[in-house]
Amino acid sequence: MKRVDLGVFNVIKAVQAGKFKGNHDLKFTLANGGMSVGEINPAVPRVFIDAVEAATVLEMRGITKRFPGVVADDRVDFELRPGEVHALLGENGAGKSTLMNILYGLYKPDEGEIALKGSRVSFASAKDAIDSGIGMVHQHFMLIPVMSVAENIVLEVEPTKAGVLLDYDAAVEQVRDISTRFGLVVDPNAKVEDISVGQQQRVEILKALYRGAEILILDEPTAVLTPQEAGELFSIIKSLQADGTSIIFISHKLNEVLEIADRITVLRRGKRIDTIPREGATEDGLARMMVGRDVLLRVDKPAANPGDVVLEVKGLNVQDERGLAVVRDVTFSVRAGEIVGIAGVEGNGQSELIETITGLRHADTGEISVGGRRITHATARRMLDAGVGHIPEDRQRLGLVLEFSIAENIALHDYPFPPNSRWGWLFPRRLAQRARELIKEFDIRGGGPQTSASSLSGGNQQKLVAAREVARDPKVLIAAQPTRGLDVGAIEYLHRRLVEERDEGRAILLVSLELDEALSLSDRILVMYEGRIVAEHGATANEEQIGLEMLGGRRKEPAPA
Amino acid sequence: MSTYAGTLSRSRLSDPKTVGVVGIALGVLAFVLAIPPVTLRSAVWPVVIGFVALVFGIVAISRGATRVGGGAIAAGIAGTALALLAIQSSVSNLDQVVDASLIAQMLVFATPLTFAAVGGMFSERSGVVNIGLEGMMLMGAFWGIWGADKTGNWFLGVLIAMLAGGLLALVHAFFAIHLRADQIVGGTAVNFLALGITGYFFVQLYHGGNIPTGVSQIPSLHLTSASSSTFFGDSFGNLNYMIWAAILLVPLSYVVMFKTPLGLRIRACGEHPRAADTVGINVYVVRYASVVLSGVLAAMGGAYLTVGYLNTFNENVTAGRGFIALAALIFGNWRPFGAFGAALLFGLSTAVALRLHVYSDLASTLFQALPYVLTLIAVAGVIGRTIPPAAVGRPYKKQ
Question: In the structure, what pLDDT confidence band is assigned to residue A24 with cuts at 50, 70 and 90?
Fold first, then answer.
């Protein structure tokens, strides 16, 4: 594709102003800020057509942003065409969010310039960006839970009556209008805290559209969604695109990017590696660009060699806080030296099952035993002593004490025992020594024993949790979504490590919401639906079949537009 | 027509919540019948009505409205018991405790609390805990009477009070918002600062002695002639301007907080400041303005105390009313009418407690603790839940 400079819009303006009329029969239509070319006379010089086709609605040039100790973005170029979905791909910490926060006016770039529709802009605040037609849906939603959908959408641009009063009815009406226009169904009067995460995301999108956004930034939009909701989001994105909205899609998930993007810009450690069209892009190629080396996306593992049954669950029933049955009559076992995966859509009882096995939740009926020892109603401490290791699904809430150092986090289980302590006296030097060993063994990067866990990246936090749990030499290792939110490099490491632990003879129970992951790692797969185990498969399972079983055996309904 | 009304009342009555609320009302009624102006001397009606309240409560609970039903049962039992107590006592004693002027007195005690509580609402709804209300009130109390004394004009005195309260609030805002200090510690410091400032200037300007008599006082609004004595005249006919101002402040602040874009933005800052920031609301400006406004309003409450009611000043004249206003704010679930209701309840209990001296000092003292027991119960979530703004007390740091 031909490179076009900022000047193209000035050319177009000149054409519109009639300076080229007579020679070139050009008609331009400006719709929703996007630009399309009407009838183009064949006599028009080729360069013009190229220029117009490649017209950028947004252009960021040489953006550099430094934070103390790091260069988050290093002379990054980024351009967006009208009506395209442009994916911004990179590992965690590659500078994607920083770049978009600069575009949205939340950060000031140290160097570089931004041009919107050909004219230079500089945003001092998010308000400036909003006023220029840029909207952003943050990864963590910026919604006020106790307020209604309509109130959230109109906040700061409220319709008024009698000059000073908030015209709530008009707000509801306007939200209804805009949501029917873009096909984003929400109830304007519902409180945000009462609607699903997927709907909350729609509210965020509507919030941007209500403010007249022509460029929409979606920051890792699928991270919080179930697969169905992600499917709905993709159809929303397509309809917005058809409406002329340009979309920047931030992600580190390769399959999504390949599904939705027209073009893909890859960032690595603050630098732009390349911008490529989707056609011809492959997962392997993108992964290599992201990480900077070849990445093993598929897990390469020898056949399992299962031994004795280590973890046995019989007829387990569990209720949630509201007294609803969430785990129903679950029976399964995990042998030494095998990985058993539990596949299922989020919220089908997997979390509760894990919590019960690790002593965090009370079982109603049924039996859990580890190595022949019954531990059904044991406390978490006794479960740990019985040989259960737990990599929890929420590492920041359940896995780590973020304010503690790496050394302290590693000693969370074993602090009361020698050599960590004796007669109630803690030996910090021994903790640090132990931490140094594990940091080396598990390749935890970003600090030493005294570094606080909060300052580590997500991948290294997860390695820290894994290090602690594996180093205790558990009989059973329970890994709940061990790679959630991690980038490909860290995922590759953790996958390899889990297989290694299996080959060491541990029994591993893996819960994953990503069917790909469950399939590639597991030696056996259990499918959970509405609290029951509805199917069991061997190592060579049919992906489509499992997908159906995860949805209760019914074919997935097409997402409502 | 009659059938329509019939179905309407039947459908309303079938709602267990309504049943419970009616039960509570009946429980209160059982007690009200035994005191002036009705002063029933027979135990029959209070007992019967109290019993009916009890039944309503049980019905409500059995149909799922446990909280309201529990309230109805409690109201039925307490109403009957209090009514029986009232019937035991002499009519002359009763008349001394309960008469039309009780309402006026309740309003007198409730007014400073209302100003401060509504002020506190603005601050806390914007996300800043304002435990310094007490100090801001005290500033208003002292500088208000100083202003009224020096200028000879109560109106200027109140204006000076508002300025002083606003300035102290600005100090609190600076520490809480700009320096991101702990808001509880900062507020407590502000209280001691106010105690120190007013104490010092009281000694300095008035030589520790008394404020001279005859300082310009906030006048009262006379709605009825002084000679005639009616229930309305005794209760509402002769109230201070500031009391009326407090009563007007409540709906006004409700409209501002819940019916204007400004209120929506204030609440947004207190619930999720980053969300407010990302749509272009300047969280710092909103919080500064809200805290200063809370100081101005609290100071008006303080000024009423000295310039309007006592017409003098003593060291620490507010005596914890700022904290009680804070309790009223929480009891009232951070809402103007709720806070006003709580302030009235506290005012009533203070007024009744003063009058209970005709029975015994012990009863009076004990009764004064009642509203705070209620506050504890309310905060613990027994009578409906009180939910503070989500981001209250948390300093906001721009990215």
Answer: very low
Asked if A155's CB is within 8 angstroms of B278's CB, the reply is: no
ipTM rounded to 2 decimals: 0.82
| Residue of chain B whose alpha carbon sits nearest to that of A108 | B399
pLDDT in tens, A364-380: 999 999 988 888 888 88
In a domain, A465, yes or no: yes
Same domain, A104 and A182: yes
**Domain total in chain A:** 4
CB of A511 closer than 8 Å to CB of A481: yes
Tokens of A48: 């013009």
Asked if residue A67 is part of any domain, the answer here is: no
- Indicate the helix (H) or strand (E) that contains A72: strand A70-80
pTM attached to this predicted model: 0.77
Instruction: Determine contact: A347 vs chain B, CB below 8 A.
Output: no
Residue of A nearest to B264 (CA): A155
Mean pLDDT over each residue of chain A, to the nearest integer: 84
Element at A39 (helix H, strand E): strand A34-40
Residues A102 and A225 in one domain: yes
Q: Which of A456, A473, A490 is the last residue of a domain?
A: A473
Residue A300 inside a domain? The answer is no
Of the partner residues A107, A144, A211, the one whose CB lies closest to the CB of residue B271: A144
Cα B379 to Cα B231: distance, rounded to the nearest angstrom: 35
Residue span of the structural domain in which A19 resides: 7-53
Of B304, B246, B293, the closest CA to residue B115 belongs to B246
Taking the CA of residue B376 and the nearest CA in chain A, the distance in Å comes to 24
Hey, what amino acid is at A131?
Answer: D
Q: Are A36 and A29 in contact (CB under 8 A)?
A: yes
Sequence-ordered alpha helix ranges (H) in A132-210: 149-154, 168-181, 197-210
Same domain, yes or no: A215 and A141: yes
Does residue A2 lie within any of the structural domains?
no
Residues A284, A171, single domain; the answer is yes
Q: Do B260 and A164 touch (CB under 8 A)?
A: yes
Using CB atoms, which residue from A156, A160, A211 is nearest to B281? A156
Which A residues in the span 159-218 are in contact with B, Cβ-Cβ below 8 Å?
A: 160, 164-166, 207, 211
- Which token pair is B137? 């009130």
Q: Are residues A462 and A525 in the same domain?
A: no
